[in-house]
Write a structure and sequence with these properties.
The protein has helices at 3-41, 45-53, 83-117, 149-152, 160-184, 187-190, 194-206, 222-227, 237-250, 264-296, 315-344, 349-363, 365-373, 376-383, 394-435, 468-477, 496-504, 507-513, 525-541, 563-568, 593-604, 615-622, 624-632, 642-655, 659-663, 727-732, 739-745, 777-782, 786-792, 795-799; strands spanning 136-140, 299-300, 304-306, 309-314, 388-392, 441-446, 451-456. Helix 10 packs antiparallel against helix 11 and helix 10 runs parallel beside helix 12. The chain is rod-shaped. The protein starts with a helix and ends in a 9-residue tail after the last helix. The longest helix is centred in the middle third of the chain and has 42 residues, at 394-435. The protein folds into four domains: 3-111, no CATH class; 137-450, no CATH class; 489-716 and 731-745, no CATH class; 760-808, no CATH class. The strands form three sheets. Strands 2-4-3 form a three-stranded mixed beta sheet. The protein has a two-stranded antiparallel sheet with strand order 1-5. Helices cover 51% and strands 4% of the residues. The protein is mainly α. Mean pLDDT is 78; it is low at 43-82, 102-133 and 755-765. Keywords: Membrane, Transmembrane, Transmembrane helix. The chain crosses the membrane at residues 163-185, 401-420. This is ShKT domain-containing protein. Residues 69-98, 115-135 are annotated as: Disordered. Residues 77-98, 115-127 have a biased composition (Basic and acidic residues).
């Protein structure tokens, strides 16, 4: 109730109490006046008093002090009534009648007070006693709203303009609420259906989530960062915000998929829906009570009002009011459905409170229009409407309470099972589609092969500031440079063209352009500054960020992923040693081209003999499955050919260099020559096994053979030289210590010609030449060597075609 109406009610109540009190005291004042007048005209006051004292006491008599009245003496039969006594009796009768009226009035007031303040007394059988009523009367006021305008039209004193404005505002308020309801029920306002979000999550996960282009400097995938709540995202921020809302709504920890036992979003959503149902319940209850109040007003052909109170209401006005109430009920029901659905489909906890407040504002549109815009005359008339007294019995009160509780429980539970629970379950499905399964991998399309290639990325929880990408940017952005001037981990280009070239430069190109076959710690000046970032970068990647020399990283030289280390530490990684482990001693794997050139020169100074028992040759074959598995992208040993590969390794561990002509000339995986080497993975095995690779002198030796295996001799005409005139003098002067000079001038004197004989490659059907293998075909079959030899196309398999099952 507004303050204005409250003041009016208090003033009316005060005036009513004054009128009632005046009406109650008026008979008493009149009686006192008459009594005083009578006493002034009595001739014998003493006789009057004596006659009063002689009156016998009547239990029903009322004396002064009890009711404020005195009883005149009644004359006996023996007394002779005088004229004055007759007049006195007439006055007494009038006074008695007035006294009875006053006592009936106070008795009625007392009964009314008992009815209001005390529960009715019951008889033994539980029924109300005589004179008591089962129930209380409650005033039902008419709300200050546009919907009650029909009650006061024609009784408000408003002009036709005010009436038209009042009707227009009533229609406007109704239309505004209807428009709000229609907007709330539109899918465009409620947002996409959760089912559409599931499909969008699937498309995002299958599309850009694992694209290698979106992998960051920490080598983590986009989906891993989005699902872990990475705050530094510049891509897929919409997906990240949606996942954050779902996590907050369901109480899921970042990166998890299990909701809380009591999801906070679901709880708050049901509280808001319950509050909205309570608000609408109050509205429906107000509509129902106003209809009951209107129904209690007597109906007639005309509406009669007395100072805001209805004496009667016309049938037309009552019917119009009923239609208005039904229209209000329909609007409130639509608001209940639309508001509940809107709250149920709100996935943001912060938006839930705002939406609940917004719904309350929509519901109060009619009251706001009434207060702000309604004509004053009509406003005042509605303010002054008196409440209608309605009697509520105990039974009707209990029935109403049970009905309200049932309707509230229904209004809350139906939205839960109809919208809230399915939407909550669907939210969890969306989260699973976004973040379920393996997150830590990226893929890229090889256009030439029309095949997607994949790589396992770093899990987001393992990311630290020590990862190279983040460390490089962080150190340079904070100007923590090496020695205060040189970039720590970034190789800066001098021009944009050089930068673009360096971005796509291959390791082979970089190793081929590396100027010296020197270790990083042996470089000086500008070279040290330029290539220092390379060394520090690979040290961080290998987990040795404090390393300052190549010797500290020597143990990683033969690792598949240490290409950059082999480039900046060529000497330590033995890229210039012709007898070193052949794996990765090529520019494609980081060894500088100048180091490989030195290795060939050094091989020319070595005897042209095989090293069958070298540790590096044995290690070469033990690493073969691992390196080839990385080449084909799957575990070679778990393939169907795995057992044959294992036999191949057994053959080479037993035969050594002699096994090269046995297993065939080419690598079955890459197709490269064993003896000639591979530009991608290994240097020529001919430097370790020259004889088995056909490096036996003569003019037809393969190009991969060392110069020491060439048919050679000292030059016949020694060049003019003040130090030496022949090879003997040249050897004494140290020419043999210079490989290039020794090979060009005096290879025989310097021991570079060993005169090895040509190895026969004659193969007799059914007989293994002893030069190839010192065993027969039965032994080859017994050892289980036939399958890998057949796979490799070995000449031994053709010689032992019968034993190896190749004969038809």
């Amino acid at each position: 109730m507004s303050a204005v109406k409250l003041e009016k009610k208090v003033a009316a109540l005060e005036k009513r109490l004054q009128d009632e009190m005046h009406a109650a005291l008026e008979p008493l004042a009149l009686r006192l006046d008459k009594l005083e007048e009578h006493l002034r005209h009595v001739a014998r006051p003493l006789d009057w008093v004596e006659s009063v004292e002689s009156i016998p006491q009547d239990p029903q008599a009322k004396f002064e002090g009890e009711s404020g009245m005195a009883i005149l003496p009644q004359p006996t039969g023996e007394e002779k009534e005088t004229k004055e006594v007759k007049e006195t009796r007439k006055e007494k009768d009038k006074s008695d009648k007035s006294d009875k009226d006053v006592m009936m009035y106070f008795t009625k007031l007392q009964v009314d007070n008992w009815t209001k303040d005390e529960p009715p007394k019951r008889a033994k059988d539980g029924a109300p006693e005589i004179g008591q009523v089962d129930g209380d009367e409650e005033p039902i006021p008419f709300a200050e709203t546009i919907w009650n305008v029909v009650l006061v039209l024609g009784h408000s004193g408003a002009g036709w303009a005010d009436v038209m404005v009042a009707f227009a505002l009533t229609v406007l308020g109704t239309l505004m609420q209807i428009i709000f309801v229609s907007v709330l029920l539109q899918d465009s306002f409620l947002g996409d259906q959760v089912e559409k979000k599931v499909e969008a999550a699937r498309q995002w996960r299958a599309g850009s989530a694992h694209d290698v282009k979106h992998m960051d400097l920490a080598l983590t995938s986009l989906v891993s960062r989005v699902c872990s709540g990475d705050g530094s995202l510049i891509l897929s921020t919409g997906q990240a915000d949606l996942i954050a809302e779902i996590n907050s709504f369901l109480g899921i920890q970042d990166g998890g998929l299990v909701p809380a036992m009591v999801p906070p979003g679901t709880t708050l959503c049901m509280l808001c829906i319950g509050l909205w149902c309570v608000v609408l319940g109050g509205e429906f209850r107000a509509i129902a009570t106003s209809l009951v109040a209107a129904a209690h007003i007597p109906r007639s052909k005309r509406t009669i009002m007395d100072k805001g109170s209805f004496v009667s209401i016309s049938y037309l006005r009552f019917g119009s009011y009923l239609l208005f109430r039904l229209a209000r009920t329909a609007v409130a029901a639509c608001l209940l459905i639309a508001g509940t659905q809107w709250l149920a489909r709100t996935s943001s906890i912060s938006d839930l409170i705002l939406n609940a407040v917004a719904l309350e504002a929509i519901l109060q549109i009619d009251e706001l229009i009434f207060v702000a815009l309604y004509p004053k005359k009509v406003q005042t008339a509605i303010y002054e409407l008196e409440p209608v007294q309605i009697r509520y019995t105990r039974r009707s009160g209990q029935l109403e309470s049970c009905l309200m509780l049932f309707l509230l429980a229904t209004a809350v539970s139906v939205p839960f099972f109809l919208w809230v629970k399915p939407i909550t379950d669907m939210m969890l499905t969306v989260k699973v589609e976004y973040c379920g399964g393996d997150q830590d991998f990226v893929v890229s399309l090889n256009q030439d092969m029309q095949m997607y290639m994949g790589w396992e990325t770093v899990p987001y929880e393992n990311v630290s500031s020590q990862l190279l990408g983040q460390l490089a940017v962080s150190e340079h952005s904070q100007r923590r440079l090496f020695n205060g001037t040189v970039p720590q981990y970034i190789s800066f280009a001098l021009s944009l063209d050089t930068f673009e070239s360096n971005r796509v430069k291959s390791m082979q190109a970089a190793a081929s352009s590396f100027p010296f076959c020197l270790d990083y710690d042996n470089l000086t000046g500008v070279l040290l500054d330029n290539y220092g970032a390379f060394f520090r970068a690979i040290a961080v990647q290998l987990g040795r960020s404090n390393a300052t020399s190549c010797a500290e990283l020597a143990e990683f030289c033969n690792d598949l992923g240490a290409r950059l280390l082999r480039m900046v530490c060529g000497r330590t990684c033995r890229c210039a040693d012709p007898l070193a482990l052949p794996w990765f001693k090529v520019p494609n794997q980081g060894c500088p081209a100048v180091c490989r050139a030195e290795a060939l020169v050094a091989a020319a100074a070595l005897p042209c003999t095989s090293a069958n028992t070298t540790e590096n040759f044995q290690k070469f074959w033990s690493m073969y499955p691992m390196v080839m598995s990385s080449f084909i992208g799957q575990d070679l040993m778990s393939s169907p050919e795995g057992p044959k590969i294992a036999k191949l390794m057994e053959i080479m561990s037993v035969l050594g260099c002699q096994g090269l002509p046995v297993i065939g000339s080419n690598n079955m995986v890459t197709g490269d020559s064993w003896c000639g080497g591979s530009e991608t993975f290994y240097s020529p095995l001919a430097l370790i096994c020259p004889q088995e690779c056909g490096c036996t002198g003569g003019d037809s030796m393969p190009a991969y053979c060392s110069d020491s295996c060439q048919a050679c001799g000292d030059i016949t005409v020694f060049p003019v030289n003040p130090v030496a005139s022949n090879c003997a003098e040249a050897k004494a002067s140290g020419v043999c210590d210079v490989p290039s000079e020794a090979a060009a001038l005096c290879p025989e004197t310097c021991g570079l010609c060993n005169g090895t004989a040509n190895v026969s490659a004659v193969c007799l059907d059914g007989h293994i030449p002893p030069e190839l293998l010192s065993m027969d075909c039965l032994q080859v079959q017994a050892l289980g060597w036939c399958p890998p030899l057949v796979l490799l196309g070995s000449p031994i398999s053709r010689v032992c075609s019968k034993s190896c099952g190749l004969c038809t």
